[in-house]
Amino acid sequence: MSAPLRKILHVDMDAFYASVEQRDDPSLRGRPVVVAWRGARSVVCAASYEARTFGVRSAMPAIRAERLCPQAVFVPPDFARYKAVSRQVRDIFARHTDLIEPLSLDEAYLDVSQTKTGLPTATATAQAIREAIREETQLTASAGVAPNKFLAKIASDWRKPDGLFVIRPHQVEAFLAPLPVGRLPGVGKVMEAKLQELGIATVAHLRELGAAELELRFGRWGRRLHELSLGIDDHPVEPERPTLQISSEDTFEHDLRMDELEPHIHRLAAKTWDSYGRELARDPQRVARTIVLKLKTADFRILTRSLTPTERPASLEQLARIACDLRTRVPLPADTRYRLVGVGLSGFTDRDEIPIAQSDLFERESTE
Asked: Selecting from 1.10.150.20, 1.10.287.3610, 1.10.150.110, 1.10.10.10, what CATH number does the domain 176-229 have?
């Protein structure tokens, strides 16, 4: 007997940081807003839709954004304000379901297979959530409705901004068939190029190659690709549980060298430290002791380097410094290109627990 189909929402606030700035400062409305500090070491945290028309994107160096859009208004990020709005949005979600999986301040998965409100459909629930967000925060959100998480995430992007898109179970395979394979989760530019070498440009082409051939060429990842091509994803929505790790990561628009990663590491360290502060406010007795640097090379090798100092990390500056220093422990050529970097905190224990002194590095490497 097959498991009942889930009803999953992915709700994504539209240009969240930039939209908050435009809401709170009417003079910014209709103008290209870039949320970032100016300077050579700064990167874009968010861009309004007006700025995106010039090619400005998050994680882009601020200097490049300024070249693309000289008339852009640069606004320094105010994470305290963004967190306050995020809490408002989370409260709206919680009126409908307890099965909420936050992905960041501005997006989350919701399992609305059963809801608190008794609304008749997942689509009606998504509409009610979006209307409440608009009314209570004066911001807009886009939503996707689908039988599973990865489809819901694709759907939420389908009619952005301020859109709603529904993929019903009987529509899944037909919806996926014409999409570029790059729309599937985990298929980045390198994997997309490898598939195109095999004549695979769309999900339909991928499906036609078959599970056996994909597994022969790509191992377990090939089998997973075949499942995704059919719209199969059994991962449940996972509500917040005791924290094991807090991290922030970004996939770059263009692959970068190691010596270009420092400003991104500092930016991601700030996001991770901000999340850690929220965790400490929720549970002051659980503290992190390990600093983690994650890298993914252009050819999809994943390398993790971590350090557990004798004293637990006590400041953003310490987190950023150690994360940057961990780069020296990556034994790859200087011209290696990286498509992703992440900064994390792990090793959560009770504050009063005496840690085992550990200054050695833990190293892990895998291939996606």
From this structure: 1.10.150.20
